[in-house]
Specification:
The chain is mostly helical. It is built from four helices and two strands, in the order H-E-E-H-H-H.
């Protein structure tokens, strides 16, 4: 017991040792809080940058969704089919009734003669279509075999 009270009564240059230890701990805590605040400021800056990046990317996603909606517009696709592929809507004479489907499946199909000469339109640039003397790039074949677990192809 006397050792503990001696610790409280021991003096260094006129200050009690316990007061110096307390002062040292208080200064260490102040230093630690300052470091924590500095790290917090850096983290907040980083989080703000991430929030800005998320906002920019969501704006870009919205713009892409709008562009996809424009490209998938039925009237646009119909116009492209007419101009590049010389396609037209199905006429009423080509529609079939449900009862006549079995007859149609047994008969051989004959192409319908066009009233005018076919119009050849230039197709849009497509990397899978051969151009000039360059052949089209080879497309890898896809196997139709079902996947079996544990069996490598």
């Amino acid at each position: 017991m006397r050792a503990i009270t001696a610790l409280f009564e021991q003096r260094v240059r006129g200050f009690r040792l316990i007061e110096l230890i307390g002062l040292g701990l208080a200064l260490a805590m102040i230093f630690w809080v300052c470091l924590s605040k500095a790290r917090e400021g850096e983290d907040i800056k980083h989080m703000n940058q991430l929030d800005q990046q998320i906002a920019d990317e969501s704006t870009a996603v919205d713009a892409l969704k709008i562009r996809v909606a424009q490209l998938e517009r039925p009237s646009r696709l119909e116009a492209l089919a007419k101009s590049y592929l010389n396609m037209k809507p199905v006429e009423a004479a080509h529609e079939a009734q449900i009862d006549s489907l079995s007859e149609i499946s047994h008969t051989t199909s004959r192409p319908v003669a066009a009233a005018s000469a076919p119009v050849v339109a230039q197709a849009p640039a497509d990397p899978l279509i051969s151009v000039g003397n360059k052949p089209a790039p080879a497309v890898p074949a896809v196997s139709a075999a079902p996947l079996t677990p544990g069996v490598a192809r």
